[in-house]
């Protein structure tokens, strides 16, 4: 019994030490334009090994929250420091627009070849960068929260939109459409969130990507680059019939998919980076979502309009456990990776 008590005391001390180190990291990097990706990664690895579930969850959120908090300081300053020196935030001819009504792209001509489809187990920004290097002009789907921009990024939540906010200045373009504009000294724009209509979405051209992905500690990039985004939320918590979308939600989902494709085409993009849209915390069935994307791409309005479309899907233990070991990647591979 005494050995068990001693063991538990050591675990508590270890947890407390990790929490103290996180707090020290936050104090060091919350109001500076530098970053220690290696130290952040070590702390995250230590946190993942914490035995107390509540402490682990809180600590992971604190570590992720500091990334976004540091971003706001960096963007206000206009530069940051890497191991190689000072990097000024680039200025692109950026543009953003909110859509609340259906548009048509029937006038846009088809390409001469067939659309190339692919499914990759990789981060969506990294997939977008890959397409740029291949000579395409891609837009990346932001699987947005319908209530407001960024989802739970301020609180350090894990998710695709949150990751985009931690790696880029996307919030600068989406916050003006919400009450967050005033908090960040941004000018409000109208109409505003929520994005709860079938044809609601926001297009952002040339946001700045200036951090690596989480698996690289959100390291600050020596060479930041531009990326365009289409923000359209999926249906949240759809009512399923035998694990499948009901007829009403199929109609809504298809309209939303059409909105994604239209916003890309109307803004002159020839490639898209999509994902397992709504198949995470929104609990949409991945096989249905993959099938609906396939059906919409075959419609007259969209058939062979894009040169290349990639589904960038990161499968992990959570997605695999939720989907009976099929995960989110396999259903899309079965339809698009042929």
Task: Give an overview in words.
The chain has 338 residues and is an alpha/beta fold. The protein folds into 2 domains: 2-82; 90-336, Leucine Aminopeptidase, subunit E, domain 1. It has 11 helices and 11 strands. The strands form 3 sheets. A 7-stranded mixed sheet has the order 3-6-7-5-10-11-4, sandwiched between helices. A two-stranded antiparallel ribbon has the order 1-2. Strands 8-9 form a two-stranded antiparallel sheet. It comes from Parabacteroides merdae. Residues 75-211 form the Microbial-type PARG catalytic domain. InterPro entries: CHP02452 (IPR012664), Macro_dom-like (IPR043472), PARG_cat_microbial (IPR019261).
Summarize the structure.
This protein has helices at 2-29, 37-48, 53-77, 124-133, 160-167, 171-174, 180-183, 247-266, 286-297, 317-322, 329-336; strands at residues 79-82, 85-88, 95-99, 116-120, 138-142, 201-211, 220-231, 240-241, 244-245, 271-274, 308-312. It has 338 residues and is α/β, with parallel strands linked by helices.
| H/E element sequence | HHHEEEEHEHHHEEEEHEHEHH
* Terminal Cα span: 59 Å
Q: What is the C-alpha radius of gyration, as a whole number of Å?
A: 21 Å
Q: What does the oligomeric state look like here?
A: single chain
* CATH class type of the largest domain: Alpha Beta
**Assigned CATH superfamily of the largest domain:** Leucine Aminopeptidase, subunit E, domain 1
What's the number of structural domains?
2
Strands side by side in the biggest sheet: 3-6-7-5-10-11-4
CATH overall fold name of the largest domain? Leucine Aminopeptidase, subunit E, domain 1
| Second rung of CATH, namely the architecture of the largest domain | 3-Layer(aba) Sandwich
Would you tell me the structural class of the helices and strands? alpha/beta
The dominant shape is globular
How many E-type strands? Answer: 11
Pfam families: PARG_cat_microb (PF10021)
InterPro entries: CHP02452 (IPR012664), Macro_dom-like (IPR043472), PARG_cat_microbial (IPR019261)
Domain Microbial-type PARG catalytic: 75-211
Protein name: TIGR02452 family protein
